Amino acid sequence: MAFKQRVFSGVQPTGNLHLGNYLGAVVKFVALQDLYDCIYCVVDMHAITVWQDPTELPRATREVTAAFLACGIDPKKHIVFNQSQVTGHAELAWVFNCVARLGWLNRMTQFKEKAGKDRENASVGLYAYPSLMAADILLYRATHVPVGEDQKQHLELTRDVAQKFNNDYAASITGHGFGEAFFPLPEPLIQGPATRVMSLRDGTKKMSKSDASDYSRINLTDDADTIAQKIRKAKTDPHPLPADEKELAARPEADNLVGIYAALAGRTRADVLGEFGGAQFSAFKAALVDLSVAKLGPIGAEMKKLVQDPAYIDSVLADGAERARVIADETMNAVKDIVGFIRH
Ligand code: AQP
């Protein structure tokens, strides 16, 4: 069955947005606006799967929204809102909790990493996170989902949930006139040279909001001096940059910095090494500082301006939520009919 092509993706308001979120996700959100109808969500319900200070969460939600706008997402042509304003996310997540299997969730590596050794003490929400993520995407019957590499497994689970729902309820789906499949199997869009940006302190660890060291990441709100300092201090190895991309495989820190440069410049790693192969890190880092400041500086400045006006940001979120709700309600009414819930 042909589904209307639609993009959905989300970002958690769990702290400072960093270069990994930007290159792995938000840059792609911006580019996809020309090709699809897009829905971009600040996923505050995901955020509370680990403790969030309730006095801090609204600020973080507005800051992610400001980042979306500062990076070039158009909230009039597309939809920008925060998840908790559309109740369909929670409703559909419950249905999906009853579709997804324990064995599927037990395999999720993000839960294992985030719960750590003290698994008994992790929230039920953290465990069920992938069901809610499947609901986020499928509530809008989205067909394409731009994410970083770390979300690939959750996207596969989303496809499994959609497939199982379509199979389990096949007779009811057809009986209610929805054709053969109610949910699309959404395609992950994980492309380009920076699908997994690594920590500046350790090239084998993902750049992350929750890393204790601020020097591990470049935040979108960092000023030029801070960006320069973090790049200068970034871990490297003692050798000059290779001319051949294959040699990056055994050099995670070099690979990461070259990948960042390539993504920011809109070039390939091979192309960047064509220019910098044989150069010392000091020269390459100087070029990376200039490029990073040129690309990120205006975004950080615009974000700082936007967060000064929380009423405006809240109006963007309210308008987006209203438009999201129209699509969500349509899906939820159909899901309720398909599942056999009486409504009205
Ligand atoms: N290091 C990364 N490289 C590329 N993409 C990344 N993403 C996150 N980190 C990287 C992508 O950014 C989008 C939003 O991520 P999220 O807000 O859902 O949170 P996350 O993946 O849990 O990000 P963090 O920074 O690692 O947060 P914490 O520290 O709270 O766990 C997603 O598309 C993600 O793939």
Describe this structure as you would to a colleague.
- This protein has 344 residues and is mainly alpha-helical.
- The chain folds into two domains: 220 residues, Rossmann fold (3-Layer(aba) Sandwich); 92 residues, Tyrosyl-Transfer RNA Synthetase (Orthogonal Bundle).
- It is built from 14 helices and five strands.
- The strands form two sheets. Strands 1-2-3 form a three-stranded parallel sheet.
- Strand 1, helix 1 and strand 2 form a beta-alpha-beta unit.
- Helix 3 crosses helix 13 and helix 7 packs across helix 8.
- The two termini are 29 Å apart.
- The structure holds adenosine-5'-tetraphosphate.
- Adenosine-5'-tetraphosphate (AQP) binds next to helix 1.
Q: Which key phrases capture this entry?
A:
2 domains; 5 strands; Tyrosyl-Transfer RNA Synthetase; binds adenosine-5'-tetraphosphate; mainly alpha; 344 residues; single chain; Rossmann fold; globular; 14 helices; three-stranded parallel beta sheet
Short description:
Helix content is 53%, strand content 6%. It is mainly α and 344 residues long.
* Ligands and ions found: adenosine-5'-tetraphosphate
At CATH level 3, the topology of the largest domain is Rossmann fold
Provide the CATH architecture of the largest domain.
3-Layer(aba) Sandwich
User: What structural class do you assign from the helix and strand content?
Assistant: mainly alpha
Strand fraction: 5-15%
Number of strands: 5
Order of helices and strands: EHEHHEHHHHEHHEHHHHH
Strand order of the largest sheet: 1-2-3
Query: Helix count?
Result: 14
What value does the average pLDDT take?
96
Main beta-sheet strand count, sense and barrel state: 3 strands, parallel
Give the CATH class of the largest domain: Alpha Beta
Count of the separate structural domains: 2
Based on CA atoms alone, the radius of gyration comes out at 21 Å
Shape: globular
* Poorly predicted runs: none
Distance between the termini: 29 Å
